[in-house]
Amino acid sequence: MGSSGEPRSKMGTIKPLGIQLFECVRGGPLSFRSSQALVLVLTFLSYASYHATRKTTSIVKSVLDPKTANLGMLHWPSQQYLQDLQGAANNTALTSGWAPFNGDGGTALLGEIDLAFLGVYAIGMFFAGHLGDRVDLRILLTVGMVGTGLFTAAFGAGYWLNIHSFYYFLAVQMVAGLFQSTGWPSVVAVVGNWFGKSKRGLIMGIWNAHTSVGNISGSLIAAAMLKFGWSWSFAVPGAMIALVGLAVFLFLPVDPEVIGIEDDRHVRDYEKNDTDFPLLEGRSDSRDEAVGFIQAWRIPGVAPFALCLFFCKLVAYTFLYWLPFYLSHTEIGGEYLSDSAAGVLSTLFDVGGVVGGILAGHISDRLDARALTAASFTFCAIPALFFYRIYGSISLTWNAALMLLTGVLVNGPYALITTAVSADLGTHSSLNGNSRALATVTAIIDGTGSIGAAVGPLLTGYISARSWSGVFTMLMVSALIAGLLLSRLVVSEISAKMEARRRTDPASDLPVSSLEEP
């Protein structure tokens, strides 16, 4: 039990022990700017570690279900690191596969495990968002991270314990998906408590690089650990996320009230610089009443963006879970890549994702048109997917360049919708200043998207057994549908802008984003 002197927010959150100790040693309170920097760093590392553990399955997938005849040497100029990784392919434990995934139906079984993980993740997301607006986000995030670490390591423990039961791996991934679902609503809500509306798309686009950074680091770590046995590809990322979870527990302040900043004081500070005005502005008594699930769905713009994200994440997560497998089983420049080299090469898709997220956020800020920006990226992704499938096998150079471009166009709208759009809608004017909706809205949008993330890898497991061209057709159709779902909002944004241009009195200009329509 905390003493009466311990700072608490309105939800009863206690100041983190690490911050209390730091302030005691320092002899003074943590400044607001320092707190903002701390929040950015911790939430960035937190969600990057979530994605690092999520990425390991795609790297190990072709080891569990190998095509040994396709394993070959990677011709990559002066890359000693990649050459060392290729030595992993000579490990008989890697080339022989792992029952039950090395049989005729192994690819389908891996697809079913992806479905189970992402299905539970999507369902859990709705409950996590509901909890996030009602409990201490720091505790929720810590439990999710430590639980994710334990069950990620438990999947790898199947190697050490010589477990070959499909249901063991299925159950472990399902529980891991449940813990993973706590991450996104929590980090978005925390960042929403600390950072302002101006240039939100650019700021959150840069911050959202944690997704790609996590994917890249997860790929590199998992690929590097393969030479020691695929179990280590799960154990190391699992230990890392647990350690980051401990840091979150000790140091993460979920909102300014936790560190003792009075409302009137930090509001005056924000008024000096509009870029720092908090997302959850207009603090009123309604803050004590969290927005209901149905009420959140009724916020204008939530449904179309949630459905759009369904198809965006279907495309993005198909690449996340199957790109390394595709690379190692597709002839590129007359050669097949090793499992480890394919994992390393696949990180270029995530590098493109970093660029795409920042670019989409910046463009949407400049145009004040989230829907138009997201739709434009999804439509441009269609020819990029087509060219990657047709010309990506010419050479490594062509493959890398087209993969990078595809990553920009596929991950751009995905990043924009899950960050800036979710924050916009979670603080929509129709809520009349109620600040207790951000985690719920974020969970609805990303939870709906995560259902698509589960469907894509599952369908890929079955379709790829017949034709990879069929998989890419599915991805192009999904991108088309994602863009069309935003058509009404796009028309609304364009019409509003045309109307604004016709006005002769600049003082009458009003925000034209479709997200602010009643």
Brief synopsis:
The protein is mainly alpha-helical. Helices cover 69% and strands 0% of the residues. The longest helix is centred in the first third of the chain and has 33 residues, at 32-64.
Explain what this protein looks like in three dimensions:
- With 518 residues, the protein is mostly helical.
- Mean pLDDT is 79; it is low at 1-10, 68-94 and 263-288.
- The longest helix has 33 residues, at 32-64.
- It has helices spanning 17-26, 32-64, 80-86, 92-95, 106-132, 137-160, 166-180, 183-194, 200-207, 209-225, 232-251, 263-272, 293-297, 302-328, 339-345, 347-367, 370-391, 396-426, 438-463, 468-485, 487-502.
- It is built from 21 helices and no strands.
- The protein is globular and about 60 Å long.
- Helix 5 packs antiparallel against helix 19, helix 6 (137-160) packs antiparallel against helix 11 (232-251) and helix 17 packs antiparallel against helix 20.
- 69% of the residues lie in helices and 0% in strands.
- The chain starts with 16 loop residues before the first helix and ends in a 16-residue tail after the last helix.
